[in-house]
Amino acid sequence: MMGAVFLKLLAEEKRAFDLLYCITFKMLDHQWLTMQASYMDFNAVMKATRRQMERELLLEDIQHLYDMPSFRLLIW
Question: Where is the ELMO domain (predicted)?
Answer without folding.
Answer: 1-57
